[in-house]
Design a protein that fits this description.
- The protein is of the alpha/beta class and 281 residues long.
- It has one domain: Vaccinia Virus protein VP39 (Rossmann fold).
- It has helices at residues 9-24, 36-50, 59-77, 93-96, 111-121, 140-152, 170-181, 196-212, 241-247, 256-259; strands at 82-86, 104-109, 129-134, 157-161, 186-194, 234-240, 274-280.
- The longest helix has 19 residues, at 59-77.
Length: 281
């Protein structure tokens, strides 16, 4: 390609859609996203191919999507009336999941990627009410204003931020965590994190490409999920992506032994680890 492999942060959303499309096309798919192939487009396919991630590397993305799906479904069943989807990108959960029509789903992301998604989805019908907010989350005043507005019209909010915080500095993640802890109705937050060991691996594999796009990998708290406690969020559930992939029978044979090792919900250190955490205030 004449352009950089990844031109900007929005291209990572096209890339991730490739893995949802591949899983959807399996006969034993653990989730189905009928829009993923169109959303990925040629650009997403080119990135996946050029990055050298073959089918044997699909498992972390499949497991992460599956875990976020499960957390969303469980919290909605428990009474969540609003989901705030930060850096929503090409997420299609309101279109592919069985969600109550009374649920309010708020997607927050940059204008370009949301415009692109709207164009591809066309007249597709969501299962719940969807609101799209075109906003740069690095704009502190704007996001605080949005959170305050949403708080006034919701009772129990679940925030999800899939694939977001790895691109932020620890101080930026902390500031976002504090802002999310301020509105009373913001009860729970589903977020994925990596260990320092995994961050080093990712930098060696894809670091140059994402840095060229202005979105380097940055966040991997040494203390693990407890990082968020200082900002008012307590880990309520932590799910290992590798262990989940093993249970879903998506983990390559060569890695299955590693999935059997015990692990904690705390610091992971140099161990390559990633997980999805459900935090609560």
């Amino acid at each position: 390609m004449s352009d950089p492999l990844i031109r900007d942060i929005s291209d990572t959303a096209r890339w991730m859609a490739v893995y949802r499309a591949r899983e959807t096309e399996r006969t034993d798919a653990v989730f189905r996203d009928p829009y993923a192939r169109a959303l990925a487009g040629e650009r997403g396919e080119e990135i996946a191919k050029s990055a050298g991630f073959g089918p044997e590397n699909d498992w972390p993305f499949v497991a992460r999507t599956y875990l976020f799906d499960r957390f969303v479904a469980a919290q909605v069943e428990a009474g969540t009336d609003c989901v705030v989807d930060l850096a929503a990108g090409l997420d299609t959960r309101p279109y592919r999941m069985a969600l109550p029509s009374s649920l309010r789903w708020v997607e927050v992301d940059l204008p370009e990627i949301l415009d692109y998604k709207e164009a591809i989805l066309g007249d597709a019908k969501a299962t719940c009410a969807v609101e799209r907010v075109r906003l740069d989350l690095s704009n502190t005043d704007a996001r605080r204003g949005l959170f305050a507005r949403l708080d006034r019209s919701a009772t129990s909010v679940l925030v999800i931020s899939e694939g977001l915080v790895i691109y932020l500095m620890p101080a930026e993640v902390g500031a976002l965590a504090q802002d999310l802890a301020a509105p009373p109705s913001f009860r729970r937050w589903a977020v994925d994190i990596a260990s320092p060991g995994l961050l080093d691996m990712l930098k060696k594999r894809m670091g140059a490409a994402v840095e060229e796009a202005g979105a380097p990998f940055l966040f991997a708290p040494p203390e693990g999920p407890p990082f968020f406690e200082q900002f008012g969020w307590k880990p309520q559930a932590v799910r290992s992506i590798m262990k989940t992939a093993a249970k879903l029978e998506r983990l390559p044979m060569m890695l299955r032994m590693f999935a059997m090792f015990p692990e904690s919900a705390g610091a992971q250190g140099s161990r390559p680890w990633s997980g999805v955490c459900l935090l609560e205030r």
